[in-house]
Amino acid sequence: MKENTIYLDNSATTKPYEEVMQAFMAVNEQYYANPSSIHTMGVEANELLMRAREQVANILHTEAKNVLFTSGGTESNNTAIFGLAHGNTHKGNHILTTEIEHPSVLESVKQLEKEGFEIEYLQVDNMGVVSLDELRQKVRKDTILVSMMHVNNEMGAIQPIFEAAKIIHEASRAAFHVDAVQSFGKLPLTFNEDEGPDCITISGHKIHGFKGSGILAFRKKMQWQPYALGGGQEFGLRSGTVAVPQAVALSKAARIAIETMSERAKKYRNWQDEICTELKKYGDAVTILSTPQGAPHILSFSIRDLKGEIMINAFQKRGVIVSTSSACSSKQTKTSHVVEALNIDEHFKKGVIRISFGAHVTDEDIAQFKQVLHEVLMELKGEYVL
Ligand SMILES: Cc1ncc(COP(=O)(O)O)c(C=O)c1O
Asked: Among 3, 71, 87, 356, which residue carries the largest CB count within 10 Å?
């Protein structure tokens, strides 16, 4: 990466915080023993692990025994969905999710469908938000699981998860899983003893921690079948030698994320507003997919009849890193399922660009981005956009 590159792809991944890297190195150097071992070194590693777990539990308002460390958002989503579905077949076999989930949820429920579970998808409106009325109609006595993302990774729509939890819990005995990969550290989210989501997924690399680290946390003890079988680590719920350095690093990243959340969110929202004002100058050559009601760190927009890859290259040539609607779908040529669900005009479907802010972005980066945006649009669309 060139020294003065402007990185605006923080929803794909973030640069780890310096303190997080230091914590990771220190634990690897001194506390590398297996935390399940009974010798002193193992006990010390386990103490560190327990401290990291306590810290995450305090942040989320749950008990330490309800926090599992995993290898990331994908594993946490898979574990929650398979574990809660297979562990609750005595209550029913109906599962609800939304049409704009991350592939780690959509592919999991597709697999469950092959196993005989009944899956239904909630639609979203053109702002990317589900309808609580549709949820009310679809949730049933035999619904055993509802999985809904908090913030959409492609355009930032926020789902009304607290209102949804109320509806789900009043009408069924279903577990409510929330993929909070894009919301943790950007929006307030904690468990509540009596209400709200039952289970949430967090990914380390989206909050300036490491790739390959994640959390699956519960509000209370849940009925479920372990997904990864083996040595019975993580209270028997997620086997595999626990990666203590990752867990410690992640707990540190989570603490910094929470401590800096309101200040960052304010900054991100201002940048989002500034760039939207700029985009609106290009009239109907541009459509903005993100809404002011969405998450502050994501801004998705599209340029009429332009391909996303062409835009990305034009930005990259000028030292600015942006992405198409999501990192997962950016190598695929078909339109993303989220863009399809939003029902936008055909002319804008191929040109969706996502910019996403992180803790290392500065005001100067945003000023430079706006300048580059103008240059790119003039190069690719010429006078037409003005
Ligand atoms: C909403 C959402 N869920 C899940 C994931 C998967 O997380 P991970 O990359 O840690 O497996 C991502 C990653 O992009 C995401 O944005």
From this structure: 356
Confidence of residue 71 (pLDDT cuts 50, 70, 90): very high
Q: Are residues 115 and 156 in the same domain?
A: yes
Domain assignment present for 74:
yes
Residues 7-24: tens digit of each pLDDT = 999 999 999 999 999 999
Q: Which of 328, 344, 380, 385 is catalytic?
A: 328
The amino acid that residue 50 corresponds to is: M
Same domain, 208 and 240: yes
Average pLDDT over the chain, rounded to an integer: 94
Domain that residue 157 falls in: 18-256
Q: Where is the domain boundary, 236, 256, 276?
A: 256
Number of folded domains in the chain?
2
Cβ contact 158:292 at 8 Å:
no
Residues in Cβ contact with 29 at an 8 Å cutoff, skipping those fewer than 6 apart: none
Average pLDDT over residues 59-74: 97
276 is catalytic: no
How far is 298 from 275, CA to CA, in rounded Å? 11
pLDDT digit string, tens, across residues 308-364: 999 999 999 999 999 986 555 555 667 889 999 998 999 999 889 999 999 999 999
Look at ligand 1, atom 16, and give the residue with the nearest C-alpha: 153
Ligand 1 atom closest to the CA of 75, numbered from 1: 11
Tens digit of each residue's pLDDT (9 = 90 or more) over 238-247: 999 999 999 9
Q: Is 204 in the pocket of ligand 1 (CB under 6 A)?
A: no
Helix (H), strand (E) at residue 81: helix 73-86
Strands 286-288 and 352-356 turn out to be unpaired
| Residue 255 token pair | 């603490």
Is 385 strand, coil or helix? helix
287: phi then psi, degrees, rounded to nearest 5: -125, 140
98 lines ligand 1 (CB under 6 A): no
The CB of 214 under 6 Å from ligand 1? The reply is: yes
Cβ neighbours, 10 Å, residue 139: 22
Ligand 1 centroid, distance to 102 Cα (angstroms):
7
Distance (Å, whole) CA 299 – CA 55: 31
The reply to whether ligand 1 has any atom less than 6 angstroms from the CB of 102 is yes
| pLDDT of residue 82 exceeding 80 | yes
